[in-house]
Phosphoribosylformylglycinamidine synthase subunit PurS
Amino acid sequence: MPHARILIRPKAGILDPQGVAVEQALPQLGFQPAENVRIGRLVELDVADATELEAICDKLLANPLIEDYEIQVDA
Amino acid sequence: MPHARILIRPKAGILDPQGVAVEQALPQLGFQPAENVRIGRLVELDVADATELEAICDKLLANPLIEDYEIQVDA
């Protein structure tokens, strides 16, 4: 079965409260500041039919209204 | 600022209920079956000091007891 990795990110312009929380926490924990922190999801799976992955993302894994996704299939 | 991507996954052997739910949902939605579905997190950020990323993961972004992480820093 081909192995696939799907990176799901909040779309540009969509507020990412988890990312904001991380950005604010870093200096409080004594770390250097960070910018543009975005928290998304990582889905890894072995699929029988990799051509279905886009439909699987649209219907099940991602919310296309507020999230972008990137599909990487191992050769 | 260097751009970094952090992939956070449930450790092998740790139950991943979200992954199980996706695995069960796929045939019900008419898709081919998938195996070894694991749901993790994706953190992308621009950091002032990339050498801090491992400590940031250990202290803030990941739970080292149940999660593994992989740090990718863009050149």
